[in-house]
Amino acid sequence: MRPAESFATRLDRHLARATRRRGELGPPQVAVRAPALGIDYRFGDADARFHVASVGKLATATLVAQLVEQRAFAFDTPAADLLPGDEVAGLFETTSMTDAAGGATVDHLLSHTAGVADYFDGPVTSGPRMRDLVVSEPDRLWTPADLLAVSRDRQRPVGRPGERFQYSDTGFVLLGRIVEETTGRAFHEVLHERIFAPAGMRDSALLFHSAPDRDRAAVISDGGTPIGAGAGAGAGAEIPPSATRPEIAPLRIGSVEASGFTSLSCDWAGGGIVSTPGDLLAFSRALHGGELLAPETLAHLAAPRNRFRPGIRYGAGMMQVRFGGFSPFLAGLPRPTGHIGVLATHVFHDPVDDADIVLNFASTREMRRSFMTLIEIERALQQAARR
């Protein structure tokens, strides 16, 4: 049996079992591509767009790093030099000797060491947490300013910049605003221009802000008025609300199906992208293939600095999985780099087998099962490489 066939047989068996155990959640979306092994594998609905959650931080980090490469600013540039003072005020622990951002740099924000709170999951001084508000107020539309206000008004900084690692969606909203302030363009416009278009991601968009290029092209081919995605054809045209809310695969926050909730607008630059397995494979390949960033810049993002949780290290907008942290029996597996999202979404690149891996288990309760599948994929890749 050829490597690709043995890989598919093994993964099909594993994912069929996982699908049965997921019940009404149905099949997960899984995609793996390893060109040297002849593997181009799909499971589940290969065409369904889904909410990528914090996997989107990879795209935000890439945009920021591109601007560093263009010398618009440096990784060690203070955030206060790049954003309006009133926007960063109240978000950081400061002293009489530091500015409104407490001395936090772009790199501090990327590496979650800026000391800013996490509006999505962090403790609040009053009222419900954002994760609970997403479910209890499904029709609420959140703006980036609203998200920052949660941390400013109802949370406290978690430490001085550089003191400790504390995962922060608030920090990534600030990075998205840095992209906007530096380029003079809306965040979604820059996403389409600098990542989606170069990587060929025609089914991807920033939910509630832009439309996938494939949808725009379909309207144009039918003779309709172009709908905008920010950059390229149709830019500046009015975007119908329905165009920025494409149908996406079901997802669950706890036990609640939330794919139609307006409150999913709570992500933005921290993970508001909708995409497909194929588009995310293309993104991972472009990112690790040198099409989006120079190798040395990518290495800066990927280099592990802090412990995220057992078995996962965090760099600057990128994670590295160390399977030995899950079990010593897994220590021989490769160390893929990429990111995960709260909905058990994954995008990883395995440098040993030059493989790109995309998973969508579409539920906050499916993280363990998604990692079991990632482990099975790595084992199957090792087996295929030996054949």
TrEMBL record:
Q: What are the record keywords, sorted?
A: Hydrolase
For the keyword Hydrolase, the answer is: yes
Q: Does the keyword Hydrolase apply?
A: yes
Q: Which Pfam families match?
A: Beta-lactamase
The signal peptide stretch is none
In which domain of life is the source organism classified? Bacteria
Report domain Beta-lactamase-related positions: 45-365
Report a single Gene Ontology molecular function. Answer: hydrolase activity
- Recorded protein name is Serine hydrolase
